[in-house]
Write a structure and sequence with these properties.
This protein has 681 residues and is mainly alpha-helical. Helix content is 63%, strand content 5%. The chain has 22 helices and seven strands. The strands form two sheets. It has a five-stranded antiparallel β-sheet with strand order 4-3-7-6-5. It has a two-stranded antiparallel sheet with strand order 1-2. A hairpin with a 4-residue loop joins strand 5 and strand 6 (648-653). Helix 13 (312-329) runs antiparallel to helix 14 (335-350). It is elongated. It starts with a helix and ends with a helix.
């Protein structure tokens, strides 16, 4: 007897000799193959007379079919869609779907070469391409979110300078280009995240405090920030590992338990990068071991299937076995395929067509695959599917329809939950549009999350991982939206207290970069809005009052508030006294009064009291900022951070009433060069 594989090889070789497809072999050509090639092979295992009888029986059947059917024009199967899919996703060769698609294409070529029907393979290949298209779309949304966060982080650390900053900038350019082209670069994103973390830690660690005994230690707030950054990075790394090794982890209960332990450690704040890295190496080793086990299992199943008599179901089983072999050769895992093959083999041993047992086994496998993409379905159905398989193994009949009812119910719940998520996302985006004009880190972060929600909202059916990211993004955005509303309410309350015009005049000082003016116009007054010879903050009397006792006729922009016209605070014990001098109108070219005692100050740093620069090399711009601090002091403000088109500024008031003021080219440099000095005051 000849095995099915050996018979297919003989026919394929004969067709190649004739330079035709096996399906184009007519009855006359098949007669020649039977009498020559197949008869010769049969004589090696059967007596000559029996071999001849077998050949004549098959030849009679061939001639009968040829007489009934006649000549059929051969139409080769169109594999171009699968070939294009393999080329399109070549970059993602390590995806299980990509590995499976390559195996499907190889099997389709083999089956088509011997004239077998490949419709089922084409259908599976189309499904795999659809899964990868969805995975690519979800990946681009996640990569876009990562890119936005990395760009925001880069703005903070760019002032640090050095080779690492340039490397990070180059990586961000590569990722940005790939995003525009619809490509995923997970390796570059991971390297950019590590570099960003390193630079953020370097920046935060520059913030120090002087402990008793003049011992310099890291600021506790900076330590907490660094730990938060490390936990955030570790959480992202853990998510990547779980996604990469998902099939392996789900196949080993002990690995699933360890994954839960790591998740618990992340929630508790004790997760470390070292623990994740060590587990990732262990997972790589275990995946190689599992692949070797599955290869041995595949060979055993192949020998068992070779002993089965020929049938349509046996042919399907051999096709599935070939797909599993290709999957393992491509570096993937074939646990589901091998399990299904074992169940098929058990059913075919009882009946040549497998009967209802084989049909129900396949229904259970299809149900299990479908449930993986439905939230909560896999967890609810896992035990029920396992019990059903055990019942089939005992020869019992199971009610698969009842299990499908569970899946349909879960699908309905998932559709309703998705609708609710989309509604919440729409609400966040709409509310963000109403507060987007506010300044601050909260609004900037909310804006980035709103962009991500728009992209996630536009995705079709979500995988379990993408749905989890959608929920996480939405929860973070809603929390930030609450903060933004609180900030907006506070601004509205101040407006109601001070009056909209007065508050606008004061807050307009912080919008220097938006009107395109240079730094010298920081507090400049529009000429049409002031009387001739008067300035918004100038005194009514041409003779200025001493700074320590302002005249009752001084203009006070906060005088309409009860108790707002408080006297300036007395100078602190270490501060220089305030000198009574004439204050030039803001925006004029009058030279500021010379400052004193610059030896103990960093560059671009000043000490201000009573609206005047007391220490530091003053110029017109710093004199105007000092005047701004005097206005802020009347509001009870003790800390300010703002930017113009040239500088980032920061000021802090101490208990004695004096301000420490500093500036730098950007916020990162400001924190690095002056952060500790500002906090010392």
């Amino acid at each position: 007897m000849l095995s099915t594989r050996a018979l297919e090889r003989i026919i394929q070789d004969a067709a190649q000799e004739r330079r035709v497809h096996p399906a184009q072999l007519d009855a006359q050509a098949l007669e020649g193959i039977l009498k020559r090639d197949i008869y010769r092979r049969l004589q090696m295992s059967l007596p000559a007379q029996m071999a001849k009888k077998r050949v004549l029986d098959v030849l009679a059947e061939v001639q009968r079919v040829a007489a009934e059917v006649g000549t059929v024009d051969y139409v080769p199967a169109d594999l171009s869609r699968l070939e294009e899919g393999v080329r399109r996703f070549t970059l993602y060769f390590d995806w299980p779907e990509s590995q499976r698609l390559r195996g499907v294409l190889n099997m389709a070529r083999q089956e088509e070469a011997v004239g077998n029907d490949v419709a089922a393979l084409l259908e599976e290949g189309e499904g795999l391409i659809g899964q990868m298209e969805r995975r690519l779309a979800e990946g681009l949304v996640a990569q876009g979110q990562d890119l936005a966060e990395l760009k925001a982080s880069f703005e903070r650390v760019s002032g640090v300078g050095g080779r690492e900053v340039r490397r990070l900038e180059n990586l961000l350019e590569q990722i940005d280009d790939a995003q525009k082209q619809g490509m995923l670069l997970p390796g570059e994103v991971e390297r950019a995240r590590k570099l960003s973390l390193t630079l953020r830690k370097k920046l935060e660690s520059s913030v120090v405090q002087t402990a008793p005994g003049e011992v310099t230690v890291m600021d506790p707030a900076a330590q907490a920030k660094i730990r938060a950054l490390e936990l955030e990075h570790a959480g992202r790394h853990l998510g990547d590992v779980l996604a990469e090794y998902g099939p392996l982890i789900s196949a080993r209960p002990e690995l699933e338990a360890h994954a839960r332990d790591l998740n618990d450690a992340m929630v508790a704040g004790t997760l470390t990068e070292e623990a994740i890295g060590a587990w990732q190496q262990e997972l790589g080793t275990q995946r190689d071991a599992l692949r070797a086990e599955q290869q041995a299992q595949l060979e055993e199943l192949e020998r068992a299937l070779a002993d089965l008599s020929a049938s349509d179901e046996a042919a399907k089983a051999r096709l599935s076995l070939g797909l599993a072999r290709h999957t393992l050769e491509e570096g993937g895992l074939a646990g589901d395929e091998l399990r299904d093959l074992e169940l098929t083999l058990s059913a075919l041993r009882l009946s040549p067509d497998g009967g209802d047992t084989l049909r129900q086994h396949r229904e259970l496998s299809e149900l299990e695959r479908s449930a993986r993409d439905v939230a909560g379905a896999s967890e609810e159905l896992a035990s029920q599917i396992a019990e059903a398989r055990e019942a089939l193994g005992r020869g019992e009949t199971v009610n698969v329809d009842a299990l499908y009812d569970v899946l349909e119910r879960r699908m309905g719940q998932a559709a309703q939950e998705r609708e609710e998520l989309d509604t919440r996302a729409d609400h966040v985006v709409q509310e963000y549009d109403s507060v987007r004009n506010l300044a601050g880190e909260t609004i900037q972060r909310l804006g980035r999350l709103a962009d991500t929600l728009r992209a996630q909202r536009g995705l079709g059916q979500l995988s379990a991982q993408a749905r989890e990211r959608y929920v996480t993004t939405l929860e973070e955005a809603e929390a930030l939206l609450d903060e933004a509303h609180a900030e907006h309410a506070a601004a509205q309350e101040v407006t109601a207290s001070f009056g909209e015009d007065a508050l606008s005049d004061l807050l307009g000082i912080f919008d220097m970069a938006e009107d395109g003016s240079d730094g010298t116009g920081l507090l400049e007054v529009i000429e049409s809005d002031q009387e001739e010879g008067r300035d918004l903050l100038a005194t009514d009397s041409p003779t200025p009052a001493p700074a320590t006792a302002p005249a009752e006729t001084d203009f006070n922009p906060f005088a309409f508030l009860s108790g707002a016209a408080a006297q300036p605070a007395a100078p602190g014990p270490t501060e220089a006294p305030v000198v009574a001098e004439t204050v030039a109108p803001l925006g004029t070219s009058a030279e500021p009064a010379p400052a004193t005692d610059t030896s103990s100050l960093p560059a671009d740093a000043w000490v201000v009291q009573g609206g005047r620069v007391q220490q530091g090399a003053s110029d017109q711009l710093t004199a105007q900022v000092a005047d701004l601090l005097g206005c802020a002091e009347g509001l009870g403000v003790t800390r300010l951070r703002f930017e113009d088109d040239q500088w980032s500024w920061s000021a802090r008031q101490n208990a004695g009433g004096s301000w420490r003021l500093a500036r730098a080219a950007d916020a990162a440099s400001l924190e690095l060069n002056h952060g500790s000095w500002l906090k010392e005051g």
